[in-house]
């Protein structure tokens, strides 16, 4: 497989940096071809401006329209085009970052903002004229794995943890970006408690990452419901007989995992929360 590894951490000696290097080596040992976009090392510009689209400064900038026009005209900046070409080349995509304030680092968000432009990753129509999204799109057939680290211990990212379940925290990235653009999204790998890692913990994390990478071509993706799978009405609202009585992001999964974490609002319960939950590290 061709694997694109996008890493976002300013320190190459960090847990993120060390694991990214080891992960690349593991993939190459398995016979995969790997390209790396180390965003900090590249000096990636994360800021969207009209300059990306050669937009006249005296006219109002409508980012979607301007980006689509520049994409179709072949006028996007060279750094953006290079990343799009990597995505087309890749059979699998790894996004690797520390979880900062319950989200991706700004530089990685800016990579998505500048690379996933209209006409390339959204606003794309099929031969039938219908918009390609949520299970269909430029990343159709591409497997996507998110690897992230956080300071809080594992329980606070569990189904009843105060930080929220990791699948829900990452829903905008997993579902709203990767699955929207068509990727087969694998269960994310969260390395929790990273700010207190010992050498032995780091070795276990390395082994866990290698195990997940060994399954990158075979692991079962998250069971997100495709837009065209018959589960949504014409307004793209989930049909009432599916996940009845339930709300929240879990209803957009077709397996029973979402139901376990997102019961109906009437199913009340109580729990004790962990006393300490650092937000991030990596």
Automatic annotation (TrEMBL):
EC number: 1.6.5.2
UniProt-recorded name of the protein: NAD(P)H dehydrogenase (Quinone)
UniProt keyword Signal, yes or no: no
Record domain Flavodoxin-like fold: where: 1-213
Protein source organism: Pseudonocardia parietis
InterPro entries: Flavodoxin_fold, Flavoprotein-like_sf, NAD(P)H_dehydrogenase_qn
Molecular-function GO terms, alphabetical: NAD(P)H dehydrogenase (quinone) activity
This protein's UniProt keywords: Oxidoreductase
Keyword rRNA-binding annotated: no
């Amino acid at each position: 497989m061709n694997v694109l590894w996008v890493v976002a951490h300013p320190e190459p000696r960090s847990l993120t940096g060390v694991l990214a290097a080891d992960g690349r080596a593991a993939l190459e040992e398995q016979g995969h071809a790997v390209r790396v976009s180390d965003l900090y090392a590249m000096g990636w510009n994360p800021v969207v401006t009209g300059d990306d689209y050669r937009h006249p400064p005296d006219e109002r900038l409508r980012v979607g329209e301007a980006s689509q026009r520049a994409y179709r005209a072949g006028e996007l900046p060279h750094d953006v085009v290079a990343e799009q070409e990597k995505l087309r080349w890749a059979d699998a995509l790894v996004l690797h970052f520390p979880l900062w304030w319950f989200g991706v680092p700004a530089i990685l968000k800016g990579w998505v903002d500048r690379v996933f432009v209209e006409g390339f990753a959204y606003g794309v129509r099929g031969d039938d004229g219908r918009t390609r999204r949520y299970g269909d799109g430029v990343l159709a057939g591409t497997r996507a794995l998110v690897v992230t680290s956080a300071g809080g211990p594992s329980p606070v990212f569990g189904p009843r943890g105060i930080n929220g379940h990791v699948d829900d925290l990452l829903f905008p990235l997993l579902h709203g970006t990767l699955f929207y653009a068509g990727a087969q999204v694998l269960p994310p790998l969260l390395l929790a408690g990273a700010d207190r890692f010992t050498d032995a913990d780091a070795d276990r994390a390395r082994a866990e990452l290698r195990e997940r990478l060994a399954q990158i071509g075979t692991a079962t993706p998250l069971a997100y419901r495709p837009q065209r799978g018959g589960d949504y009405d014409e307004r793209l609202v989930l049909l009432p007989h599916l996940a009845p009585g339930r709300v929240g992001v879990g209803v957009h999964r077709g397996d029973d995992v979402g139901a376990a974490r997102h019961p109906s609002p009437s199913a009340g319960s109580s729990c004790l929360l962990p006393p300490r939950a650092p937000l991030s590290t990596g």
